[in-house]
Amino acid sequence: MRFKSLTTFVVVYIIALSFIPLIHQTLIAQGSWLGYGTGAYAFQSPSYFVLFNDPSDGSSKPNIHVNPSFAPNERISLVEFSDWTSYVDGYNLFNDFNVTLRASPKILDATYTRPGLVLHKFIDLSSPNSVIVKFVANKEVSAHFEMWKWIFTSVNSITIRDAPKPAVLPISTDIDFTFNDQTQAAVGSGEISLSRVPTQIEVWPFENGFNRVTVDFINSEMTFNVSGFVAEVGQATFTWNYAYLPYVLPAIAILVVAIYLLAERHGKKDKDLTRRSRR
Amino acid sequence: MERRIKISLVALAVRLAIAPFFMHAGDLGTIYESSAIVLSGGNLYNFVYQQTLQMQHAAGLPVFFEGYAYHPLLIYFFVPFYWIYTVIAGPTPVIIGGHFPNLPVLIYPWAPFAILMMKMPIILADVAVVYVLSGIDVKKAELYAFCPYIVFISAVWGMFDAIVAIFLLLSYLTFTKSSYAMCGLMFGLSLMKLYTVVLLPLYVIRLFGKWRQLGEFLLGFLITLIPVAYYLVFSPAAFWNVLVGFQGSRVMGGVNLYNFIWIVPDVRFDILLSLLPSILLVVGVVYVAVKYGRGLPLLEAILAVMLVSFLFGKVMNEQFLVSIFPLILLCKKCDRRLWVAPFVFIFLRSPFYYFAIPILWASPYFYDLYFQADTIWRLLQTEGYLMIPMYAVGVAFSLLILWNLLQVLKSTHSTAAEPAFSRSFSRALRIRRR
Fold it and tell me: What does CATH list as the number for A32-239?
């Protein structure tokens, strides 16, 4: 009897715990910066998923994804800031600075320091409609920032046909872009509003579009206000992705537990039969 | 030649043939790096503590550097072999980095030799287990010697759970021969990985009332704690943080029912939730040790406590089962096929380079093959495909542990020895209170 209670406890325990990822995803993970792994941070809002990679990786600093309204579990990358290829006063953001991360519920503060230079990169999700990436330096700096995506189909209405080679765009404080998402049969558009006038905006061709937009400026402050939208144009095919795992694990737990209980019962039956036949 | 020696030599040959060509980058790299620090007179715990402080400062999170977080004595099993290596090959590092998630840098042609030397204490421990087991039952020794799981953990990956296994086995055998001081010493040495500490209450309960024997056991055990006392006195903050802080704040997971936590990207929540298995572990171990500690034969009692700790404990890495595998082989109640689950898990969880270095990195052709396979593995991992079988195997392994635990516990049930022990134990407590 006591052993049966132990089995019951373990079985219930396994099944109950298998719901934790789902509970966390729906009740806890929404609307605040959460740290994980060796120092990465993620933020899930109703419309955007933002990832800021750990200090040992220079990509996704941050990577801003949009969650399409027709497929809320999908995450389509809108634009990715890269520290690998961004520079301030000629110093590479990944290799030449010490970085520390601190998070409040809505704002992640990445502080880049090197002798004589302190730069903050704030990723602010206070507004539900956009993601603000704000740079603040302790002095006026000459900065070169790169934003990546595979791929932009147009940037400020310029396509690959207009600019088959790297091209400097007319100076503006707005960068509008479009893109296709073949998996989701969707088209997307995005907008990056700059708070200061840049010195240069350049696009870099790749395959059928552009994979990079670079922004250069001389200032002690610059805000990138990023927003985007994805619309369904065809019949989206269901594709499995990581975000579905919390829904699947309880089913796996129940299945494995059921197999165990059946095997245990079968084993007991066999044992009883063997005993009876011995008698 | 005596069969016992023959099996031991064949087990040694198999392991030596494999050892230089593979490594677990993180664990073997840690032992290599730690041996170098100790040989140069450095303090291991200060090094790991500094790395942790740097990580925590950078990330603003309670994250820990995964370095040397073991008993201080452990590294002295490896240092002599590292020293021999440096005498032959020189002091230039040949395994650099490799702490997860970074790849190690390997310097050829010496890297395979360094790997072999760092695995020697593990291989010798494995061979010692084979030798001791063959003195009891040759067939069981053969099972241990050629079990793919054991060979993989020790010779392919270079994880040192075989050292825990030999000392745990000797601790059991010396106890049965009433050599309690030696039993305490062997048990203390089995704490090279801290998870066997759950057996301490069992030994104490087992010897409760036999004060002289208990004293001898504790004396033997305390000898192994002298280096612990040294570090607690001379670098208390670092030692405490690395051993207690790291182990206490570890996020649950592994080949167990808790690996669902790997898809919950929230380290503070994960650490908080990991308190639950820790509480269950303490309750489970105390309950089994008190209730069944004396009623069961010692072998079954040890296995019951270890199995309950594996069932409820928060971390169950692939290699942990090695530590009790010799005892499982000796126990008629346990299913020796238990190793299959962690063995399968290895291939689901590990990045491809854990099976490929140094051998596949030595030539451009092999490196290309490795690179293609690794790309596919990473794609499957990123999309979450591997998490499903990993979780299924984890839950299945926990249930298999439960089944084995029940078989072990049922052996007292039939002999009705347990109530007798409970009565004598409570009588002893009453006498003490008076």
Answer: 2.70.98.50
